[in-house]
Design a protein that fits this description.
The complex is a heterodimer of chains A (578) and B (159).
Chain A lengths: L2 H5 L2 H14 L22 E4 L5 E4 L4 H14 L36 H6 L4 H9 L2 H11 L11 H9 L7 E6 L8 H8 L1 H15 L3 E6 L4 H16 L4 E4 L4 E9 L9 H8 L23 E5 H13 L1 H5 L9 E8 L5 E6 L4 H8 L9 E6 L5 E4 L9 H6 L8 E6 L4 H15 L5 H18 L5 H17 L3 H5 L2 H9 L1 H10 L13 E3 L8 H5 L5 E2 L7 E2 L9 H5 L5 E3 L1
Parallel strand pairs in A: 3-4, 3-7, 4-6, 8-12
Antiparallel strand pairs in A: 1-2, 5-6, 8-9, 10-11, 10-12, 13-16, 14-15
Helix pairs in contact in A: 2-3, 5-9, 5-12, 6-7, 6-9, 8-9, 8-10, 9-12, 16-17, 17-18, 18-20
Chain B lengths: L6 H14 L6 H12 L4 H11 L3 H10 L11 E6 L2 H5 L2 H12 L12 E6 L11 E3 L2 E3 L4 H13 L1
Parallel strand pairs in B: 1-2
Antiparallel strand pairs in B: 1-3, 3-4
Classes of the chains: A alpha/beta (578), B alpha+beta (159).
C-alpha cells in the first residue's frame, strides 16, 4: 500500500479483505499492508502466503476478485488461477534481481517497528554501538566500496571519514530525500515501505562521524512517506532506539524531519542545507565541502535514501560480501525506477554491471504494442539518453558517464519509435529552466537561450547554425555553471545531438518531424480511403474541412489548428499526418 | 477571490511558530504550517511570520516566492494538479492538461471564475508506474486519459 498501489485502489481492496476475513471469522489469517513490491503496473497486488510458505501473487485485484480470493483461497485452499501474476506477466525477471536496499519493501508492514526488528532490524545499530569503534564502522563502509546512490557516486566511506576526522562540538548527518528527478521513485518506495532502515542507518552514520543530530529532508510531494517517517521516528523514540543513551552505550542521537517545498535544486547538498536553515534553496561554491563546513557551519554528512538503506546490511553481512557484487569500481546493487514505454513498469534492484538489455527486455518485458525501442533516458534531467547500440553496456557509474549520461538517482524512462528526441530534449531543458535557482548566469540565462533555440527548431525555423550554437552553448554551460544542476542541464541536449543528430537535421533541413510529435511541423491530410461520411467536417471546431457527401474531403491547412478531433472521429482511418 | 485574515487562524499560526522557534531553522516549518492553515501565504500572513520570527518581511517574501509549493494567492475549492513528470509526459500528459484547460477555461496557475477549481501542473508525484496521472485535491487518478479527467471534474463538482 504505497502511493502506486493506493492510486490503483488498494485501500478498497484492503477494506474488502478485512471485512470478509472478519465476517467469516478466519482467525488463522493475518492481513498486513506492505510497501512497494515493485510491480507498479499490476497494482493493486495481494500476496497470499500459505502456512507451508507457498506464495501466490494476485494482480490487478478488484473488489470482486478480493472476495473470490477469500472464498476460494483462504477458505478452501484453492488459489484463484485467473487472477495470479502468471496471467499478467510474460517474463519473470526475478532471477536477475538482488534486493538489498529494497530487502523489506513489500515484505513487512512499514508501520510496525516489530516487523522490522523481526527482519534483523536495529541489529546493525546494536552491533556498532556495542562492539565497534566509530573508526571501524567508517572502515567497513570504505572497504565495502559503497558509492553515493543519489547519482554522483562519491565513495560513502570516504565522505564519512572526511567528516569524522573534523573536530567540532556539533556535527550533523542529513538524509537527502528530496527525490526531485521526474520519473524516479526509488527513494519514495524505501521511505514508504521500509522507513526504519533509513532511521537505523542514520543513527549508525551519526555514531561513525560523531553526530548527535540527524535531519531527513523529504519532499512535500510525498505525503505518505512523510506520514510513515513521522510514525516510524515516534516508534523508534518509544523503543529507545533514538534519543539518549541508545543500547546503554552512552551514544545520543536525535532525528528530525524537514520538508522541502517544491524546489528541484534543493537536491543539491549545499542548497538543501540552505533550505533547512530557512533560506532560499540556493547552492554555494564548494569548497568548503559540507564535511568541513555544512549545516549552520558545522561539519555535516549528506547521503541519499538508498545509500542509507544499504548501510545496515553491510554492517551485518560484512564489507567483503557487499564488495563481491557489482563491477570493479561500482559495488553492490542499484535500484531503478523503470517507466515510460515499457510493459512492466515498476521498481527493480539489480547488481551493478547488469546490462540495459537485461533490464529492459528481461525484467521490463520489452516495449508495448510491438513498437521499436528507440532510447532510454537514465539520470533524469541531468542524464542522457542511451540507444540500441548501448543496450549491452554493463550499467555502472563510469560506463554511463563515458556515454554522456549518468547514473543519476535511478530513473529509467524508455522511449519508443513514436517519441521525438528533440521534443524529449526540450522537455528536460524546460524542466531545468523552470527549476534553475537563478544564482549563476550560465544556468539562469544560458539554459533559457538553449530552450529558445530548441523551440525555434521545433517550430520549423531552425538553421544548421542553430545546431552549432546549441552545442557550443551546452558545452559552455557545462563548464561554467555553479552547481551540478547547471553543469548537467545540457546533458539531455548533448546526448540527443550525439545519438539522434539525424532527427535534429530532419527538423532543421527538411522541416519535418519524423515521429510526427512536433505540432508545427505536421499537416493533417485526408487520403483516398475517405468515404465522405462528413463526421470530420461536423467535428472540426474551426470549419477547416470541406467536401461533399460520399466524396473525398479536404483539409485547409491554413485554418487547421491540429486539434486531432477529425482523426479521432474518422471511422475508416482515412486521415493521416504528413 | 479576496483574502480574509481570520483571528482564530492567526492565533493557531502563532502557536505553531512558537513551537518551531524552540529549534534551529524555524522558517520553513512555519511556512508549511501557514500554507496549511490559510491555504496560501499572502503578504498579510508574511508580516505575521516576520514579526514572530524577528526577520524582515523582505527575507520571508524571498523564501516564499522561491519555493513553488508556497502560493501567495488563494486557491479554488478544488486543486487539480496534472503531473508533467517524464513518464507522464511521454505517455501523453499534455493532452490531459489541454482537455482540462478546455473544460475549465483556465490555464495552469489560474483559478476558475466561480472559485471552484485551481489548475496546476505538478512535479513528479512518484506514481510513474501508473502514468499519466493527475490529482484532484488528495485523490490521485492513475492511467488517466481525457475522458477520465472530464469525469473526475464532474464528480468533484457534485461532491
Amino acid at each position: 500500500m504505497a502511493t502506486c498501489g493506493l492510486t490503483a485502489g488498494a485501500k478498497a481492496i484492503y477494506d474488502t479483505l478485512l471485512q470478509e476475513i472478519t465476517q467469516k471469522k478466519l482467525d488463522n489469517v493475518d492481513l498486513t499492508p506492505v510497501g512497494c513490491v515493485g510491480e507498479c503496473a499490476l497494482e493493486p497486488l495481494v500476496e497470499v502466503i500459505d502456512h507451508n510458505g507457498q506464495k501466490t501473487t494476485y494482480c490487478k485485484v478488484t473488489v470482486e476478485g478480493a472476495k473470490q480470493i477469500v472464498e476460494s483461497h483462504l477458505c478452501m485452499g484453492v488459489p484463484v488461477k485467473d487472477l495470479t501474476i502468471d496471467n499478467f506477466k510474460k517474463i519473470d525477471g526475478a532471477p536477475l534481481q538482488v534486493r538489498i536496499a529494497l530487502r523489506n519493501c513489500g515484505v513487512i508492514n512499514p508501520e510496525d517497528i516489530n516487523e522490522y526488528i523481526c527482519y534483523d532490524g536495529y541489529k546493525a545499530l546494536g552491533k556498532v554501538l556495542t562492539e565497534m569503534t566509530p573508526e571501524e564502522v567508517v572502515n567497513v563502509i570504505k572497504e565495502s566500496g559503497l558509492r553515493g546512490r543519489g547519482g554522483g557516486g562519491f565513495p560513502t566511506g570516504l565522505k564519512w571519514s572526511l567528516c569524522a576526522k573534523n573536530k567540532s562540538d556539533q556535527k550533523y548527518i542529513i538524509c537527502n530525500a528530496d527525490e526531485g528527478d521526474p520519473g524516479a521513485f526509488m527513494d519514495r518506495a524505501v521511505l514508504e515501505g521500509d522507513p526504519h532502515s533509513v532511521i537505523e542507518a542514520m543513527a549508525i552514520g551519526g555514531y561513525a562521524i560523531g553526530a548527535s543530530q540527524g535531519y531527513i529532508y523529504v519532499r512535500a510531494e510525498y505525503p505518505l512517506a512523510v506520514e510513515r517517517l513521522n510514525h516510524a521516528i515516534d516508534q523508534a523514540y518509544k523503543a529507545g532506539l533514538l534519543g539518549k543513551n541508545i543500547f546503554g552505550s552512552g551514544f545520543n542521537f536525535d532525528l528530525e524531519l524537514r520538508l522541502g517545498a517544491g524546489a528541484f535544486v534543493c537536491g543539491e547538498e549545499t542548497a538543501l542545507m540552505a533550505s533547512i536553515e530557512g533560506e532560499r534553496g540556493m547552492p554555494r561554491n564548494k569548497p568548503p565541502f559540507p564535511a568541513d563546513k555544512g549545516l549552520w557551519g558545522k561539519p555535516s554528512v549528506i547521503n541519499n535514501v538508498e545509500t542509507f538503506a544499504n548501510i545496515p546490511v553491510i554492517i551485518l553481512k560484512g564489507d567483503k560480501w557487499f564488495a563481491s557484487m557489482g563491477t570493479q569500481k561500482s559495488k553492490g546493487t542499484k535500484v531503478f525506477a523503470l517507466g515510460g514505454k515499457i510493459n512492466n513498469t515498476g521498481l527493480l534492484e539489480v547488481p551493478m554491471g547488469t546490462t540495459l538489455r537485461e533490464v529492459i527486455y528481461g525484467i521490463g518485458g520489452g516495449i508495448p504494442n510491438d513498437k521499436k525501442f528507440k532510447a532510454v533516458q537514465t539520470g533524469g534531467p541531468s542524464g542522457g539518453c542511451l540507444t540500441e547500440e548501448h543496450l549491452d553496456t554493463p550499467i555502472d557509474y563510469d560506463n554511463l558517464l563515458n556515454l554522456n549520461s549518468m547514473m543519476g538517482s535511478g530513473g529509467m524512462i524508455v522511449m519508443d519509435e513514436d517519441n521525438c528526441m528533440v521534443d524529449v530534449a526540450e522537455f528536460y531543458l524546460k524542466f531545468t529552466v523552470e527549476e534553475s535557482c537563478g544564482k549563476c548566469t550560465p544556468c539562469r540565462e544560458g539554459t533559457r537561450r538553449m530552450l529558445e533555440i530548441l523551440d525555434k527548431i521545433k517550430s520549423g525555423n531552425g538553421t544548421m547554425e542553430d545546431l552549432t550554437e546549441l552545442e557550443e552553448l551546452a558545452l559552455f554551460i557545462k563548464d561554467s555553471a555553479l552547481c551540478a544542476l547547471g553543469q548537467s542541464a545540457p546533458n539531455p541536449v548533448l546526448s540527443t545531438l550525439a545519438n539522434f543528430r539525424d532527427e535534429y537535421i530532419a527538423h532543421v533541413v527538411d522541416k519535418k518531424c519524423p515521429t510526427k510529435a512536433c505540432k508545427a511541423l505536421i499537416k493533417y491530410f485526408v487520403t483516398d480511403k475517405c468515404i465522405g461520411c462528413g463526421k470530420c467536417k461536423r467535428n472540426c471546431p474551426v470549419a477547416a474541412i470541406s467536401g461533399d457527401v460520399k466524396k473525398v474531403h479536404k483539409i485547409d491547412s491554413s485554418r487547421c489548428t491540429k486539434c486531432n478531433l477529425c482523426k479521432q472521429s474518422c471511422p475508416v482511418n482515412a486521415i493521416i499526418l504528413v | 477571490m479576496k483574502f480574509v485574515l481570520d483571528e482564530k487562524k492567526v492565533a493557531l499560526l502563532k502557536e505553531c511558530i512558537a513551537r518551531h522557534k524552540q529549534k534551529p531553522g524555524p522558517l520553513m516549518p512555519s511556512l508549511h504550517d501557514a500554507q496549511k492553515i490559510f491555504g496560501c501565504i499572502p503578504i498579510e500572513v508574511q508580516k505575521i511570520i516576520s514579526e514572530e520570527l524577528n526577520e524582515s518581511v523582505a527575507k520571508i517574501n524571498g523564501v516564499v516566492t522561491f519555493y513553488s509549493n508556497f502560493s501567495t494567492e488563494p486557491k479554488g475549492k478544488h486543486v487539480i494538479s496534472v503531473c508533467l513528470g517524464t513518464a507522464c509526459y511521454v505517455k501523453g500528459a499534455n493532452e490531459i492538461l489541454q482537455a482540462i484547460e478546455e473544460v475549465l477555461k483556465i490555464k495552469p496557475g489560474e483559478t476558475s471564475e466561480d472559485g471552484m477549481f485551481t489548475l496546476e501542473t505538478t512535479r513528479c508525484i512518484g506514481a510513474c508506474g501508473l502514468a499519466p496521472v493527475f490529482k484532484i485535491d488528495e485523490k490521485v487518478y492513475g492511467a488517466a486519459n481525457k475522458d477520465i479527467a472530464k469525469k473526475a471534474i464532474e464528480e468533484a463538482l457534485k461532491a
